[in-house]
From TrEMBL:
<keyword id="KW-0645">Protease</keyword>
<dbReference type="GO" id="GO:0071555">
    <property type="term" value="P:cell wall organization"/>
</dbReference>
<dbReference type="GO" id="GO:0006508">
    <property type="term" value="P:proteolysis"/>
</dbReference>
<keyword id="KW-0961">Cell wall biogenesis/degradation</keyword>
<feature type="signal peptide">
    <location>
        <begin position="1"/>
        <end position="25"/>
    </location>
</feature>
<keyword id="KW-0224">Dipeptidase</keyword>
<keyword id="KW-0479">Metal-binding</keyword>
<dbReference type="InterPro" id="IPR009045">
    <property type="entry name" value="Zn_M74/Hedgehog-like"/>
</dbReference>
<protein>
    <recommendedName>
        <fullName>D-alanyl-D-alanine dipeptidase</fullName>
    </recommendedName>
</protein>
<dbReference type="Pfam" id="PF01427">
    <property type="entry name" value="Peptidase_M15"/>
</dbReference>
<dbReference type="GO" id="GO:0008237">
    <property type="term" value="F:metallopeptidase activity"/>
</dbReference>
<keyword id="KW-0862">Zinc</keyword>
<dbReference type="GO" id="GO:0016805">
    <property type="term" value="F:dipeptidase activity"/>
</dbReference>
<keyword id="KW-0482">Metalloprotease</keyword>
<dbReference type="GO" id="GO:0046872">
    <property type="term" value="F:metal ion binding"/>
</dbReference>
<keyword id="KW-0378">Hydrolase</keyword>
<keyword id="KW-0732">Signal</keyword>
Amino acid sequence: MVLKSVVSIFLAIIAVTFNVPLTSSFPTKLPRGFVYIKDVDASIIENMRYYTSENFIGKRLDGYLGKDLILTKVAAKALSNVQQELRKDGYSLVVYDAYRPQETVDQFVRWAKDVGDQSTKEKYYPNIDKEIVLKAGYITKTSGHSRGSTVDLTMIKLGEKVKNITSERRVLKDGSIITYLNDGTVDAGSSFDLFDRASHHDSEIIDKKYLEMRNLLRES
């Protein structure tokens, strides 16, 4: 999924094949090579959106049986390194999603094909037709998340907490309109899971101040 508004980082250094990949619901005992993020760096804030109804499907998703986020051990350590750099600048990571079961990815695809369900259009894909979500690559049939090597994340100022979402209407530079879902994290111009040009990392339709915030995370 293209979720650049909160800077989806693919950790290429750990994009390797593991002997025991996680492909289904969260197990009670993790396979070798996988860890809970909190066990590597408890300072990283976790806010698993797919365990709630605050996501583009509008309900808790298949496969998410708990709130603790999982990554490969190498990925979690790399994420912790990013966290330590950000803390020097007065920020903390907020992670929305990490390991994602294949059954969740399959649910994404089913949702995308169900064009009759438009219940979340205003918040998550206001400027495109649902029919092109798959074609445009916002949703794919496979995901790096299912290897435990990808995270969806953003930042928040140190000392602040993620809050209940409030919605606000935002007019972009090209005149298009999106709903910004404010959860107290840094404002990078668009919000998590927005299927829109505004979510592309170097989007030309958002203000410069938002691009600067996105680049801060990319460079960490």
